## 1
Amino acid sequence: MKKTVYFLIILLGIIMYHVISFSAENEGDSISLNVSNSEIKIEDEFSFSLNLANTKVSAFNLTIFFNNELLEYVSGPENTNVIGSKIITVWYDETGGQNPKQNCELVKYTFKAKDIGNEYIAIQGEFYDAEGNEIQTYTDGIEMISNEVVQTEMIEVSEESQVTSDNSELQILRLNHEGMSPVFSPDITEYYFLTEDLTSLEVTAIPENANAEVTVAGNTNFKEGLNTINITVTSPDKTNKTEYAIYVTKTKDVEKANANLETLAIENVTLEPEFANDIYQYLTTVSNTTESLNILAIPEKPTVSVEVIGGENLQIGNNEINIKVVAENGYTTKQFKINVYRRNEEEQRIVEEEQQVNIQKLNAILEEQNEEEEQVQRENSIIQNIQEHSVLTGVFIVLAIIILSIIIYRLKKGKLGKNEKESK
């Protein structure tokens, strides 16, 4: 009986140990958001950070969308690019995963309120381990409430700073389920969502002008295949209308709904921002002599079809290139857009002059650096010669002392011998 009791106690201990270990491994295995202040006034600064707990990150990329008419970007991590109302931060461990980030403040961004108005900051990120495996996809947002009343004074809002009556853009667009891509921005009108079993989605659509009219259609009774949610925003003065669309793919075969690109690049041209599958709009500038582009668009799956529209007979000014990707199922699609600006002759002349000036400045810096290096080398050579001479001088002095000591010793010895002889 005692043996049975002891066995049960040991078994219970083993079970409790594994339960506690499992909980410890999974508890806090996350990325958390911390905001310094959610209620701000004009000229106030605030910051937010992403904090890492109980997991190791060897690489990550973050995309943040904000309204640059209301907020001013102040500071952020070193490896950050700011393009209009979009912030992109990319980091990877240069040691190949030997020094991952863990249990720390991963990134911190600081903004300043430029104007009055409620603002929604959208955050989307992907995090990877040392093997390149995706650890977590992070999507979150911050709703900032701008306070127009200061304790001691009332801030008067000028007509220019108010949302105009012809504004037909959304300020916030959210779903009651995660997975909408890309992260919402007022200037992006097409979004994508994939589901296996949902039949409807709740849509939160808040306009920048509170008096604008918003209608939502197509967010219920999803059928197998492609469903479209249409959000129409009509400005208060009825002069403008902006239409947003969320393309919802409902399918049990997720693999056949893959419409991602593996590569999107243009020969001898740099895209801004750098290509990522959750970014669908890009910018680039080409020279005045560039008339066509060699565009490389490779899908993740070979069975996916890709159609490139544009890139030839470029006009002076803005040119739009559309890359349409159709998944294997035939109905899931994604649209990537590249705005290519071709410079005119005057702009090209200015750019070339600036490049020439920069080259001259670079050459001057290089020459100065070479002169400094040569001066350092000369100084080092002089120091080395002095050191060598000092060593030789020291050797000569030591030898001289030794020789002099020997001579004195011999003289003393000889004198002592002579005195001994005389005494005898």
## 2
Amino acid sequence: MKLYNDLTLNKDEFIPIESGKVKMYSCGPTVYNYFHIGNARPFILFDALRKFLEFKGIQVDFVQNFTDVDDKMINKAAEMGISVKELGDMFIEEYKKDASALGISPPTYAPRATETIDEIIDMVKVLVDKGFAYEVDGDVYFSTKKFADYGALSHKNLDDLLEGARIAVGEKKQDNADFAVWKAQKTDDEIAWDSPWGKGRPGWHIECSCMAKKFLGDTIDIHTGGQDLIFPHHENEIAQSEASNGVKFSNFWIHNGYINIDNKKMSKSAGNFFTVREILKDFDGEIVRFFMLSSHYRSPINFSFELMNQAKSGLERIYTCLSNIDFELKNAAGIDKRNDVANFDEYSKQFSDDFVSALDDDFNTALAISSIFEFVRLVNSDIHELSKNQLNAAKALILKLGKVLSLFNKNVEQNESKVDDDVEKLIKEREDARKEKNFTRADEIREILKNKGIIIEDTPMGTKIV
């Protein structure tokens, strides 16, 4: 398997530190609001990467954190008149609801920054003792000039990174590029913890360093996140982790591309900012997931309702194939006497190999999904010739590989829960009307069924609910 490593700017062979086991960290949400469609992309993509590694027989220790203390949390809690903890509790639960709707499985560990304070204080102590950090009036800053490899991930030297950097009002750091690892309490009612430097709270960057270390150790296999996190967040994680621990922090750094909305950068001020909760009012979560996985993770993608409807249609094509298989198995006369189609095993194996090869080559989910469409096309073309065993095998293969991406999980049987006695009577009445060439009544019944949410299709083997 090869993955593009932003640290080396190459597609590198992925070899875990420990054979058969992967330690993977992904930056999670700051829980002060519902997460937006831009956040959803890395959550979906790296959940899928984890599942592909598990499909390959690898044990994945996967950490995705909750940032539950920072300026945004403090300001939002004050605005709502609740504590920072209450705010975090609220939106962690809301995150879980939306993540579940998107097919995202819980990580192995989901630590909260506020549960890692002791480890954060310990790391800051080490950085100060080693001379990589310094304290000023209760604030502790990391000195970027002291870390020789600063800029290795963003591939810029320190002078480039200093361009445009400013010292904010109230900051007393020595250099513009220095960043806070511990922040002094500003007001008596601000959330804070006791520390050797007085009451305060952690900086954002060091939270992830400490949560990764706590659950995965000093060196991990893969660190992931959105492209916008490369600098400064991930650059700073590397600096403070490696300065503290004395070893390489992560062997692979994998980042997804940006999302635009209707070909424009997503922003609240432009009014093109959507939360996942809002999107789920119009689209099933599986459609959102399918949309995200239909592009290569490193490519920028454009989000629009038109493109979401296209994704919906694409997903429906695959479900229709599965439904067609079920219908053929139940209704085709003489299916038990069919001989195997000669080339079925070959194209099934080719499809499976193409699917896995696409994911092995820098986790190309777009190409993997294309191979599914090709297999579906071939199954549809041969569906009336395939033997019973081959039809079952085709369905099992689509579901098996779909499971790798957490797709095609819904019941593809003929919506039997909707088919009550009244519906069955209407379908029978319509079939009788068609036999009697009473097409007016047949059309009336079709509309009655449609109003009940039941769409039917006439086939040579009878009426099919789609």
## 3
Amino acid sequence: MFKRLITPVKSKSWFLFGPRQTGKSTLVKSLLKANDLYIDLLPQRDFLNYAKNPGRLREEVLGHLNRVQGIFTCVIDEIQKIPQLLDEIHELIESTGVHFILTGSSARKLRRGGANLLAGRAYTYNLFPLTFDELGNVFQLEKALISGCLPVLWKTDEEDSLEFLRSYTETYLKEEVAAEGLVRNIGPFSQFMDIAAANDGETVNFSNIARECGVSVKTVQQYYQILEDTFLAFRLPPWHRSARKRLVSHPRYYFFDPGVTNVLAHTFSEQLNSRVRGRRFEQFVISQAIAAIHYRRLDFQLYYWRTNHGSEIDLLICRGKDILAALEIKSQRNIVREDLKGARSFHKDYPEVPVFILGIDQKERLLYDNIIVLCWDEFLRNNLVGL
């Protein structure tokens, strides 16, 4: 129903990662031709057959190759469930030329279990919730801030957003975490999820969260890593002139979708209060920027900037050691000079870097030298690529 902006190469194998319900299976099925092969590891019977005998994959691919008499694509859905299949896939790519598309909603077992990641024989892509450009004319900012951008919630108005998102978070805890054995005790992790969502986009204090959950600081750090590995959250490190300082400072984490955040943080409402709305708008714009950067394959790195005195910039877009742009995200429609404390403080330290104040329904205007106010979607659509 929605044309996705991701453009994987057609002449090579690739991984496609992303949270559940972002449309990975729908996307890859739309790319398949009549002679291609589709294998889903979610059904228990199929999972057990391949888990007991990974060599079965090789037998089936060779049998299919014999039938179609030509190169084809083999899709394996939820590859993280049986990482051992990657050894078979590696050999099949080398010996047959068959292309593989491998989807997954978790990379934890692959990255941390010594799995064969095909050593450059497969590219890696990520799929995100729908972007405002993918939604096109049906996009509504308020709906995105409340219910998020998972595709199922935009296909029809009949879906109850709150009930769907409640079920989604419960399914994640049950299937992705408990079933995969990512944590030993689901109770503290469930409590951690609520606390992490309530602190979405704030500088993380691991000690405080550990105290609230009744677990160690190391465990909280492991919990955040699980959120990253399962694509439910992304990490935004702080910017410092010293690379060493970046490693010891506290990061920020954002959940991948405002709707999921609202349910976990118990802030889901038909009308968000101004404080929550501002935070969800910041989360939304940053996640849309990440998706745009990834889909366009731009070589950017992202950070936030904050001084000891509390002045801050929500997002720095960098290439290596160079800061290309600073973004301050404001949900109010009336942006005045008094709102620019962080921008002016940053501009004093980095006068050569353009600072963009991204608001809603803004006409582009220059407030100070190199401090520009404009609409958030205009920046993402027109300014991002030109940095």
## 4
Amino acid sequence: MGLTYQTMEWLGTGLRLLDQRALPANLRYLEATTIDVLVDAINTLAVRGAPALGAIGAYGVVIAMDQGAQEGWDSERLEKEIDRVRDARPTAVNLAWGVDRVRPLMAQGRDAVLDEAHAVVREDEVANRAMGVRGADWLLARLGDRKLRLLTHCNTGTLATTGWGTALGVIRELAARDRIEVVYVDETRPLLQGARLTAWELFQDGIAHLVQSDGAATSTIMRGLVDAALIGADRVVANGDTANKIGSVGVALACADAGIPFLVVAPESSVDLDTAHGDDIQIEMRNGDEILNFAGQRTAPLESEGFNPAFDVTPARLVTAFVCESAVLEVSNGQTPGMKWGRES
């Protein structure tokens, strides 16, 4: 199950990014050597996924330093441009985390910042593999050592990370053990990250899957066709509430009713202990035109306006377990991130 594509690569003067807007039809890349290009790539979802954005944030500081040196920015302008990267997507905590991790090193020079950005990538790759093993072990221990029928929402694979994946990393680990019967892939409206990206990754790996509409997910679960659901997270707060792609909370509600596990798989960099409850998470609102149009064609009356939250919040009571690189926390049994790291309010 060798990967033949990379989400990002540092070229020495900037980032080479796999342009996820073009998938699955075209495998193309773009180069981000300026802050304008990088921020546009983040905002238009050419690059996306919480762990990937953590690395993007770290490398973005290097790109800002390089551009500032070339164009003669003063310190105020440099900090403003770095903030543009940090704040490009407010719900995903990893983007700000990546910037904040390397920013204190700027006084030591560009090389120190770049070395730390490379460290973010290395650590993410190790964390991905660890989460895959922990999540697979947990599921097989509770559901039996057998082939599983799983459901996933949005994209949580290599395309959302620096390599391997979070929730999709667990699925890949199970596939490597020959413990996958089928994966139900929610299409993930309005930008189809499930149909375009997750299905493409599963096809590349030869993992059996079925793409379904988001509206079918609840029925699929409640008909007994799914053994467990796995999602990623853009932010996990101290009490275990989780922000993820819009539609995730509906999957969690169906799993709770059906009595099957609902797992959140995310690195510790996605944990925000400074936020106590999910009600305090800022939800990114995207352009309503993403809802009102499809493939360039208007699908609603011209007079209609769109309501387009990018994320929703799943309450901790609906999360069976949170899988990170160092542990599996059984949230439904009271094990929350805040308790593990001693910061719960």
